[in-house]
Amino acid sequence: MDYFFSTKQLTVGYNGTPLIRDIEIRLQKGRILTLIGPNGAGKSTILMSITRQLKSIAGTIYIGDRSIEEMTNRDLSHHLSVVLTERLRTELMTCEEIVETGRYPYTGMLGILSAADKAAVREAMKLVNVADLKDRDFMCISDGQRQRVLLARAICQQPEILVLDEPTSYLDIRYELELLDILRDMAEERGITIILSLHNLSLAQRVSDDVMCVKGETISHYGSAEEIFQRNLIHELYGLTDGSYNPVFGSVEMKRPPGTPHVFVIAGGGTGIEAYRTLQKKRIPFITGVLHENDIDYQVAHDIASCVISEHGFCPITDSSYQQALEKLHTCDTVVNCLVEYGEINARNRELFEQARLLGCKVVENVATL
Amino acid sequence: MESIEIKRRARIWIVFIALLAAFFILVSLNVMLGSVQSSISDTLSALFGRGGDMADILWKIRLPRMLACVLLGGALALSGFLLQTFFNNPIAGPYVLGISSGAKLTVALVMVLVLGAHKSVGSVVLIGAAFVGAMISMGFVLLISQIIRRSAMLIVSGVMLGYIFSAITDFIITFADDASIVNLHNWSRGSFSGISWDNVRVMAVVVIVTSCLVFLLSKPIGAFQLGESYAKSVGVNVGAFRVALVLLSSVLSACVTAFAGPISFVGIAVPHIVKALLKTSRPLLVIPVCFLGGAIFCLGCDLIARTLFAPLELSISSVTAVFGAPVVITALLKKRARS
Predict the structure, then answer these.
(1) Taking Cα atoms as reference points, which of A179, A150, A147 lies closest to residue A81?
(2) pLDDT tens per residue across span B81-114
(3) Residue A326: enclosing H or E segment and its boundaries?
(4) Measured between beta carbons, which residues in chain B are less than 8 angstroms from residue A92?
(5) From edge to edge, which strands make up the β-sheet containing A334-337?
(6) Rounded to an integer, what is the distance from CA B154 to the centroid of its chain?
(7) B236 touches chain A (CB under 8 A)
(8) Measured between CA atoms, how close is B12 to chain A, in angstroms?
(9) Does B216 reach chain A within 8 Å, measured CB to CB?
(10) In 3-state terms, what secondary structure has residue A363?
């Protein structure tokens, strides 16, 4: 297969000291590659090296079949543009002037912008919704706005490859989503190849085609987003012990409350999540059931309940599961029933609740009062 | 066109025209005023008439001195602007970084050696010596800037460097010939006096050529305002650009020091005033207006230095400091307010 951007046995590092070896990127045109990994693992170092801000120690970086080592700065600037994490301090520059610096590779000796250059600047600013900021001083706008102005700058450089180092660091969730949506649009509609690093795993999962996990000396994993966002892989990558990552939601749960559980939560169909989280926050260990394995409650309970009594998806609760739940109920003194309605497959959860009452368990309506 | 754009352009034109007017007024005043006053008609007839005492004073003293103010003032302002760009530091300038003092040291050395041998020193030799000195102190400043990243400390180091060079210069002057001391003493405090037409010709060539080169660098200077990494990413050859900045700013401050000695604060103050007036830092505008502003600043300061306590003459640096230092303090306060 033909790759638009690739590296061969790339080794990167500072001052001749290798930090990460054997980086093999294979990226097709118009795809988004995200670098994830713990802090200080070298994501920025890789991004700096592939944009030639930092001299790579060994190996080759290709755009198409040309090595970027052979390109002049000007040549490279026609192919590749960047959004860096460093905080800019400018003096008396309007946002429009910042964006205009992206036209540098296309202007003449004195850098005077032509009508076409100005149109490109306007279009880029419109695309990232900063057109109305054009006359504002770059130092007098919010972090989120600044980041979008810098993205406009990179876009009006009309690159084939766009490299962004932690572009969402200073953004609130709205602008984070908006920025990633713009990137997705650029990849799909304009065929721009995008390489970025992200901290937010759930967004990384949603925006990326390919993912590279950077950890320590080598690239620990490289593959499609589906291949990479697996529970165990993410746990290993970040060394997660207290807490867990759930690939279905792409989100994380905090650690399971420790100790012997005395609270039983009867739930299902998404009714339990709120109670689970509240108990987790109050550090109260709990047992829950009977949950179907394809139930949304099951996903969360799996990560934070001390014990989950489960049943196969779509099947009515069997005797053995029911007995198991009943046994656990005997060890508890408090019961929380989240269910308000019952269907054919979870009818026995009603029985379970009645048993709990008979056993003299304290019935709690609102978990927050525990 | 939108109203903001119209306002912006109007502001630039108004500033430009006002500065040009100030420039011509100061040029005239600098020619007319002095220990011997001269009216407009006297001046014109002396300049274009048949000669006489007044014509001698004008042609031999005031005109070359006025032209030196224009050229060297412009050169100082540009040199400061380049150094501020290079170090990304609003209070960098040839004087505070010790570059003027370095140039002063080598010029003094050459003067003492050559004047001691009872020969006269040519303008080109002076500039050459000053350039070597400027490059030596620039070398030290660059070394320090590699180690110390904090910009305030860089300035402190520069000031210390300046003191060291000045102390050595004082030693040299102390041991110099009696005859040359008088000359050296005036010059080493900074002064536009005693400029000859030969000096003016050489400085005109050096300053005009260098300033044109600086103007041609407007584009990369603009890109550099976003920092080195972004400049590189749009295709600036950062290494070559940095070398060019160092060389050009050193040539400019060397030229000033060779003829007028160390002059403080012009290099820092003028770029700030100009940016504040224009309300932009676009190099394409700032560079020419900086030159004009530097010329005006020095014309004004030299006029005060010459006439305030005439026939006594103040050293130019004491006058530039009075007007320049408050600007620098304001710039520092603004910087603090921003961060």
Answers:
(1) A150
(2) 999 998 888 888 898 899 999 999 998 888 888 8
(3) helix A319-330
(4) 275, 279-281
(5) A307-311, A286-292, A263-266, A334-337, A362-364
(6) 20
(7) yes
(8) 14
(9) yes
(10) strand
Under DSSP, the state recorded for B161 is: H
**Helix, strand, coil in percent for chain A, rounding step 5:** 40, 25, 35
For the entire predicted model, the pTM comes to 0.87
Q: How far is CA B145 from CA A145, A188, B84, B158, B160, in A?
A: 32, 45, 13, 10, 14
Q: Does B235 touch chain A (CB under 8 A)?
A: yes
The answer to whether A149 and A133 are in contact (CB under 8 A) is: yes
Q: Are strands A307-311 and A251-253 parallel, antiparallel or unpaired?
A: unpaired
**Residue A26: half-sphere exposure toward Cβ, Cα within 13 Å:** 7
Measured over the CA atoms of residue A16, residue A22, residue A25 and residue A26, the dihedral's sign is positive
Cα(A339)–Cα(A351) distance, rounded to whole angstroms?
Answer: 12
**How many CA atoms are closer than 13 Å to the CA of A61, on its beta-carbon side?**
24
pLDDT tens per residue, range B156-183: 888 999 999 999 988 888 777 666 666 6
What's the CATH code, domain B68-338? 1.10.3470.10
User: Residue B142 has which token pair?
Assistant: 């660059």
SS3 category, A335: strand
Number of H helices, E strands in chain B: 15, 0
Q: Quick check: B3 contacting A, CB < 8 Å?
A: no
Residue A53: closest CA among chain B residues belongs to which residue? B229
Beta strands in A104-197 (DSSP E): 161-164, 193-197
φ, ψ (nearest 5 deg) of residue A129: 60, 45
